[in-house]
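Ex. 9. Protein: Cell wall-associated hydrolase, NlpC family.
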Amino acid sequence: MAQACTDTQACTDIDHRSRAAAILRRIAAYTGVTVATVGLVTAFAGSRAHAADDIDYDAASASEIEDHLGDLETERDAAATSLTGLQTQLAAANAVITATAADYGTTGAQLLDVTAAVESADDELGAKVSTLVEYAQEQSDKYAEAETAAETVDRLEPRIADLQTQVGKLDAQIEDAQAAYDEAAEAEAAAEAAAAAEAAAEAEASAEESSSSSSSSGSTAEYSSDAATAAVQFAKDQLGESYVFGAAGPDTWDCSGLIAGAYDVSGVSLTHSTWAMWDETSGIGRDELKPGDLVFYNGQNHVAMYIGDGQVIHAPKPGDVVKISDLDMGMSIDGYRRI
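Predicted C-alpha cells for Cell wall-associated hydrolase, NlpC family:
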C-alpha cells in the first residue's frame, strides 16, 4: 500500500509532476498529426442530388431537350456551389494547420520551448512544474482540438472528390444536351420551312387548278364582237379624264365605273363593283384574250379592259387619269373574264 503524503509542498510537487507526465504523453501521441480547426466543416447537406432524368435525344423535341438542359444546369450550379463551400472550409482548416505547425513545430522544437519555459521559472520546484503544466495543458487543448478537426477533414475530402466528379459529369451532360438541342431546333426549323413550302405549293396548285377551270369554262363563253368593239371605243374616248372613286361618268371614272359605262352603250348591264363584275362574267385563259375582255388585278380590287397587243385601258387611282397600260403592269393578275 502506498505511503500517504504528509508534506503539503511535497504533495503539491508530486501532483504537478504526475499531471505533467500524463499531459506530455498525450502531446507526444499527437506529434506529427495533421491539424485542422473545429467548427469549420459543414457536412454536405442531404443526400447527393440525383442526376437529371435520362432523355432520348433522338425522340425528344427541341422544347423537351431545352427543359432537360435547364434541369442539368440547375443541378450543376447547386453542386458547384456546394463544392465551393467545402473547398473554402478546407482552405480555412489548412490555414489553421499551418499556423499550428508554426506555433508548436516538431517534438524537438517543443522540447526546447518546454525547457526554456522551465528554466525561466523560479528555482523553486513547484514553480517550474507549474510552468510546465500550464504549457503542456495549452498544447494538450490545442491538439485535442486538432484531433477532432482532423477527423472532420477526413470526412470532408472524399465528399469534395465526389462533388468534383459530379460537376465534371454534369458539364459533359450539359455539353451533350446543348448539342442535341441545337440539332433538334435546326431540324424543326427545317421541317417548318418545308411544311410552309409544301402549303404554298398546294395553294399555288389549287390556284392553277381554279384558273384552269375558269379557262375551260371560258372556252364556251360567247364573244360579242359588236359590244366589245363599242366598249373599247367608248373607253378610248375617255382617255385623259380624271379618276374619282365611285364615279361612273360622264367626265370622271373609277375602274369599275369605266367598264360599266363602256358596256352600257351596247345595252349590257354590269354592276358598278369589281367583285360583282367577276361573278357576272365568264372565265377565259390568257391566250383567249380579245379586245373588250376584262382583266382583274390585286385581289379583284381593280379591273381593266383588254384592247389588244398586250395592252389594257383603265382608270388607275386617285390623282391619275384614264389611260392605256401594259397588260402586265406590276399588279398581280387574278384572272381573265369575258362579258
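Check your answer against this statement. The helical segments are 8-30, 62-104, 107-120, 125-218, 225-237, 255-264, 274-280.
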